[in-house]
Each structure stands twice: as C-alpha cells, then as structure tokens.
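Q: Structure for this?
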Amino acid sequence: MQTHTFKPDLPPPRMSVGAVGWLKANLFSNWFNTLLTFFAIYLIWLIVPPIIQWAFINADWTGTTRADCTSGGACWVFVQQRLGQFMYGFYPTELRWRVDATLWLAIIGAAPLFVPQMPRKALYGLGFLLVYPVLAYWLLHGGMFGLSVVSTSQWGGLLLTLVIAAVGISGALPLGILLALGRRSNMPAIRVICVTFIEFWRGVPLITVLFMSSVMLPLFLPEGMHFDKLMRALFGVVLFQSAYIAEVVRGGLQAIPKGQYEAAAAMGLGYWRMMGLVILPQALKLVIPGIVNTFISLFKDTSLVIIIGLFDLLNSIKQATTDPAWLGMATEGYVFAALVFWIFCFGMSRYSMHLERKLDTGHKR
Amino acid sequence: MQTSANVPRPRGSVWTDPQVRAWVFQIIAVIAVVALGWYLFDNTQTNLEKRGIVSGFGFLGNSAGFGIAQHLIEYTESDTYGRVFLVGLLNTLLVSFIGIVLASILGFILGVARLSPNWLISKMATVYIEIFRNIPPLLQILFWYFAVFLTLPGPRDSLGINDTFFLNSRGLYMPAPGPSESFWPFVLVLLATIAAIVVMGRWAKARREATGQVFHAFWASLAMIIVIPGLAVLIGGNPLVWSVPELTGFNFRGGWVLIPELMALTLALTIYTAAFIAENVRSGIMAVSHGQTEAARSLGLRPGNTLRLVIIPQALRVIIPPLTSQYLNLAKNSSLAAGIGYPDMVSLFAGTVLNQTGQAIEVIAITMSVYLAISISISLLMNWYNKRIALIER
C-alpha cells in the first residue's frame, strides 16, 4: 500500500508575518488607519523633537549661577542649585541628616512588610504603625533626648508634602472606616450623622476646607489652645479625606454577601467582633486598590497647602522661581515638580494595579 | 411533643437587648454631637466678642472698593460685597461650564482613541492619560499660567493670527460680534428653519414607521440649515458686525479678551479632567460585550448605526455615574483659581473679601454652601439623566 506523505506546509504569506505583517495589521489595515498613522507620526514629530532638544540636547547641566546657562535650552543648574530647598524646605542644613534618617527608618522598617514569607506580618505591621510615627516626630521635630527643636514652620519641600500625605492617610483611614460602618448601621441617628458628615466634606472643595481650618479653627477653640499652621492644615486634610475613604470602604462593605453577616451573627459574634473578624478583613481586601487611588489623589491634593502659605514641594519651587537671581526659570521648576509628583503617583498607581491582580482570589464574577 | 409557643422566650438583662442598646447608643451619639456643636459655638461666641467682630450678613451691603479683572455683569469699585460675590460665582460657573464641555469632548476622543485598533494612536492616548492624570491639577494650572501665558510677548509683539486674533501676555484678543440691523430678521428665519426641520423629522419618522420607507431627514435638514439662512444673509446682509481688536498705544481695544488666568485655568482643568473622562469612556465601551456589535451587524445595521443605536446607549449606562463625579471634581477644582488669582468665588470672596472684612464664619459658610449647592445640583441632574437611560430590569 502506498503511504501518503504530506507536502511540507507552505510558509505564511510574507506580508502577514514579522515586522511587515505587524505594521500592516496595526498601522495600515485600511485607508482610514493609514491616515490616522500619518497624523500620529506628524503629531509626534511636532511635539517630541522640540522637547528633547530643549530638555536634553540644548540643556545646561553644570554650573552655579544663571550665567552658566548659555545654550538656550533648559537650565537644570537652577534645579541642581536649589535641590536642597526643594527637598527639605527651610530645615536647617546641618540637621538635614535627621530627615534622611526618618526616611531610611521608614524604608527599612516597612521593607519586611513587602516580603511575602514574613511570619506574623500583621503584628509587625501594627507595631510599626504604632512606633514609627512617634520616632518620626521625635526625629523631625526634636525637643527630647538631646535633639534640638526644629519648629514645623521650618519644614518644607518634599518633606512637608510627604508628612502631610502620610499623616493624612493614617488619620483618615481609621476615621473613614468608622464612618463607613456608621453609614451602614441599622441605627437611624448614627446613619444620619455619618451621612451628613460624609456628604458635607465630599461636596466642598479642599481649598475651602483649608481656608476654614486656617481661619475658623482658631475661633472654634477655647482661649489659650493654639495649633500651628501645619496642624491646622492636617486637621482639615484628615477630615476631608476620611469622607472619601468612607465611601471607598462602604463599597467594600456592600460587596460582602449578606450570608457572611448572617453566618457571623449565627456564630454568636457581637457587632464589633463580627465586623473586626469577618466583615472588615474581607471588605478591606476588596477595596485596597480603591484606598491606594484615594491616597494618590490625597498626594496630589497636598499641593493645595500653597493656598494657606505652607511651603510644600510645589510652593518651594514657586518661591524659588520668583528669586531675582533666577528669573525666567518657571518652566524648569514646574517641569521638575511635575516629574517628582508624577513618579510618586505613577508608581503608586502601578502598585495598586499589581495589588489588584495579587489579591484577586477569583471570587469576582 | 410540646409546642414552643407556650414557653416564654428567655429574657436577658435589659442591657443585652439589642433594641435597648440601639436606643442608648443613638441617644449618646446625638447628645455627643449636640454637645460638641454647642461647645464650638460657645467658644466661637467668646472669641468673637473678645476680638470685637460683629457677626451677621450686614457686611454684604458695604462697598467693596476694589476692582475685578473679569466680570460678566456690570461691576465698579463702589459696588457692594454682595455684588462681588455674584461676580465671583458667575466666574466660577463660567470656568466650570467651559471646562466640562471641553473636557467631555477631549475625554471622549481620547477614550475612543485608546481603544483604536491603530497601535500608534492607542499608545499616544495611553501616554497622554498616564502623564496628565498623575500630575496635580494645581501644578498644571501654575505651569500654564507662569511658564506659558505670562512668558508670551507683550501687546506690541503679539502673536497675531490673520490680524483678527491676538495672543499676548495680557490674554487672547478676539473679534466680538454685535447685532446689525438685519440681526432680528435673521434670527426669525433661523428659528423658522429649525421649526421646519423638527416638523420634517417627525413626519419622516411617522412615515418610516407607517410604510417602512426611509427619508434621509438628516441630509435634508443639513441642506435646509445651510441654504435657508445662507439665502437670508445674501438678501438681508450680514446679521453680525464684528468689532476687531486694534492696537492703540500700549494695549488692544475692542473685541473680546480672554484673560490669561481664565485660559490657564480652563486649559489645565480640561487637560487634567479629560484624562480621567477618557478612562471612564474606555471602561464604558469595553463593558459592552462584543456580541452586541456582532448581533447588530448581523441585523444589517451599518457600522455608524451600530455605534449610535447599540453600543453608545449601553456604554453610557456605565459611563454616566463616574462621569458625574468627574464633573463634580472639575467644578470643585475650579476653586484652584485662587492659586493664580483668577477672580473666582474662592479667591474673590474667601480671599479678598474675607481679608477686608474679617467675617470669617459668614464668608466661609456662604462659600461652602454654594459649592454644596453646585455639587448637589450637578448630581441631581446626572442622577435624573442616569435614571432615564438606566436599564429597566424585571
């Protein structure tokens, strides 16, 4: 019997594989797409080369004064010269090691939390959250154990931005969880109080909140009680942000099936143990990406403290651009600020997407 | 077997009864809130008395005595603080309105571009979105204002377009239309044309439903809206007279001017919010399953009609709720005007007026309630719209 042998397969048409095939499929699939491609190339050609020219090719990188910027492009000398001010504000130069130490402490202290195999992670995390703020306050503010006092009015730059963001989120998170629980409560009075609180803060812009905490808070407090500017701003930021956190957490609470509540009640758990042991662990896990997103918007919102005269990163740069010795450096300054903010926010949003994938236990439909 | 109905339910102590506890908790909570409120109120009263500030809204009737760079209604320095408030409110609404319209258009284009089969276009949209939504809006406003608009050349070396538009560091000057004597007849003709188009559209739809015959109402109305008013202009002359800005001395006169603060603010808010709207639009379109497109195509709908009648109505249901919060965000972010001194409500009222009068509580209370009112009206409007287009389920 004759065995049939297949001929070897013909290779695919040359136009449909490799680089040419990819180009054809993705850029030139029909006349409209081709048109769009040329339009896009034109736009890129219009935008990208001038930016590269300005920021890199024609830029000045070394020098000490404005006179060193001669090539007509970006004058990064300005940023380089003022970097200390942008990072630390008016923090005394010889004490800046304390800020660095605070940062390193945070990085080293928090690093174990990102190791998946770490045992007793929750306990360690809780301990870190309780101990670190005290240490950080002692290092930054001083006044005890031989460290000289650096008042909060001298804090500034990226340091201040990070302090506001960190205090804002750690104050807003517990308050927001309580508000979310209150909003889902069966008791009408509690619910009304929480809903009013949340909707009020969500309805007004942060600027008016900052104005309020800076001009009205002193009127609300009894005689002799005095908060400095930073404390007042933090107060406003925490209240404002807790309302947003509350809404995020409420989304998580609503996503937990009723059976979980009923099962917990059937086990004889009271309200707080039901929430603490059964509902919140599941709900919070669901909303971690949402909380990170809220934190990103809080981080961007920290720049608003410029309105009440605090010198955060943005305001330090804005002040530096009005320096007569460096007039006309607004573009360089703001581009640098944008870069710093962008790195933080983009990094966090990537992290939140990573968390979303990691925490997805497949129950989602 | 004994029925359980006769056995009295075991009663614990009063304190373990959930209902009693609920009442107690609520009463405690209300008392605590009222006490806190009273404590703050009492402190405020004492502090105000000590500082000699008379509370009340009487200051709104006092003369303001400062000028405002942009006012949509008549305003002079001798006008009252109440008038200042109105000017600021209108400026806030103006920025919010322009911003919402422009951000929606740009956001929809970007959202669709991100889903484009064209690799280059979709990557460009992604890069845009990732860049601009991760930079604080205030920073973007400051950048446009200080690094772009204020560094433009002065009035004498303006960038002119066609000798009708002029861009310089004092703003964008453009021709302003005014009515000529043939203006009202022209408006009449225009209204009549629109009425005719509406009637024709109804007739075309009724005929299509009765007989199945298609009448190309869209093309007919396009022709009508171009030809009839065009004829009116040819016969009656131009209905508008344009006042073109002219350089006299050191500045331009005539025409309209967009102040740089307004341009920086709207530009930054538009660019920032459009990045978020684009993401909402993208997720809305992706939420419509591909089967819908295939089903529509197999029914014989053309691609344009598929998009208009099948995809977009379903995508809008997903898009509307997050879009609402973006609109609200834009309205609230318009208060960042205070950073560059655009005369909006916050910088005029909570800034200048508060500094001049010292009536902190009244001023902040008014400002906050206006924003609350704006927020609530936008969300009511969008909720109504959302309810109208929402899926009616069984």
